[in-house]
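Reviewers asked in the last cycle whether our approach scales beyond single polypeptides. To address this, we selected a multi-component target totalling 656 residues and predicted its structure end to end. The input consisted of the following lines:
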Amino acid sequence: MNKYEGLTASEGSAVGPIHIIHSHSPDLDRANISDDQIHIEVARYISAAQEYELELQTLLKKLRGTASEIIQAQALILQDEQIKEEIVSQIKKEQHSAAIAVHHTYSKYIERLRDSASNMFKQRIIDLVTIRERLVEWVIGESSKKQVPIGSIVVAKELSPTDVVSLVDSNIKGIILEKGGLTAHAAIVAQSLEIPCLVQVGRFLDYHTLDGVGIIDGAEGLFITNPDEPTIQQYQYIIEVAKKKRQRIKPSTSPGQTKDGNRVSLHANIEFIQELDLATKIRAEGIGLVRTEALLYGGITHKSEKEQDVYYRRLLEDSTGPVVIRLFDVGGDKIHVLTPNESNPFLGWRGIRMLLDEHDMLHSQLRSILKCAGDYPSRIKILAPMVTNVDEISSLKEEVEKVQNELARYGHPIDNNIPIGIMVEVPAVAIMADAFAKEADFFSIGTNDLTQYTLAVDRTNDQVGGLFQHDHPAIWLLIRDIVTAAKTHGIEVSVCGELASDLLGVSGLIGLGLRELSMKPSSFLKVKGWIREFEMSTFEAFANDACTARDRNEVYKAFRKHFHTA
Amino acid sequence: MIRKEVTIKNSSGLHARPSAALVKLASSFSSDFFIHMYGYRVNGKSILGVMTLAAECGAEMELEVDGSDEKECLAAIEQLIEDKFGMKDE
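The resulting structure, written as structure tokens, was:
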């Protein structure tokens, strides 16, 4: 029995068979791997060769005669000890990725054959090329596209949103990430789907021993491998008890308001239709943020408009209250569908910048949303991501008008007053909030990116992850200015970042005057209970201190002082 | 260690399937097995090594076998080559 320590990114415990996913395809151009990747790359190559061989063996059963002999020879080449040694030693000594090592080694033999004069042998080259290409495919993750067994605990270095989306369909029990932070995209999705998830387990993982059943202990932040039978039973009991407890929780019908009766409207962030269930159960007053990027992950460019139509329609049907739909926010840590290789994607072609360049993509999304808005008048709001210049808002409004006119011409009902707001996630917008408040119909503060851009910290970078502090005084000061500008110009302002999910964050936000918060559904009841416990003056006093604190420690000290928490 | 000169006799030479047969046979012995040809020395238990010799019909090569069962190993390999790898000529 081995125990690995990690951070609990999504609560809960799980027991299930371990399934390793080698995500993040190594780039064939990429030069070297780091020391700690060597064993992973070796394991990646060996398992790829095994998978490929298995595929050949399956094929062999269907073949006879010469064809079968050729495939047998291919299998033999795969098993070739010499080539295995050469590839492994290239990974170890040259620090090449498995894909590059496979490619180089096979290429060497292919070149040798090519140099030989005989035509007969030149014809054999194709066999080697076939093996090389197939093996590289297996190595760089064709194998990871295989179905994940239902009910698995998935172990991966990190997971892209694409991976997470496909995992949701496999009904996985838990996720173990070698890297990742508590606010990584995968972690956020895991929370909202109530899938237990540990991150930063990496330093300790020994892939060779990962096999059989694994256990996630969310309470202790432990990943247990090779558990004995009593341990498995113990955890199954814990999981069963937690499940019963959850079923007994009755969402309170009491409104979101402070002890002295100040209303705070509470909404849910969602990405998948499956999450609407939970949002309804907890009685969210609306959907404060719909992330639409998942619509893009499935396809190479974008899902057909029809599929988008179905998605938005179900969204509106299965929810109540306002629904804020954020336009495709592709780029940065999200998947790069169209983006070229950028050395700094977070500062690159993403959000509204890309949408205004890619008219077809923008128009198809707008058409789909606006059709739905016509059928469900005054429920949909459109949110533009990554705005940094005022004229981006007017450009977007022009495009919306074009699409509305087009729909009207075809006799489709339209919602003429559909609000168009912006994400406030770039410091420039917060600093010039006045100017933006004149153009935008509402503000939605994205505290994750706002923190990242303000503090110059990449939250997915383990080395500096600790500097990612969304409760840093600088963030409080920016939010204060944003709220003031919104109030001056009479537009709505809400927060949809992680800050609205933790109790310190919620306290500061309410104290600064926010009356609308949107959060992941799993934090909803906790936040609502907290708000109802204190008076507005307490929140305000804390917010005041948070804005004058000299660092995060002072913010924490003030929090403890005002809320008497340990 | 023993060495022996041999000539490839089957019409298609040491291409994939004959190479596979040779490697399979050699791997069933504990002795090390190398083939010398055109100044190359390749591992006779590696199908890629053998294949890339591109030995055609009539090619001459030197077999090098070293180990406790070297005599049996060499005899079996010679027999295989003599039998044209058990293949009908194509």
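The domain at 2-24+157-248 of chain A is CATH 3.50.30.10 (Glucose Oxidase; domain 1). We regard this as preliminary and will revisit it once experimental data from Aim 1 are available.
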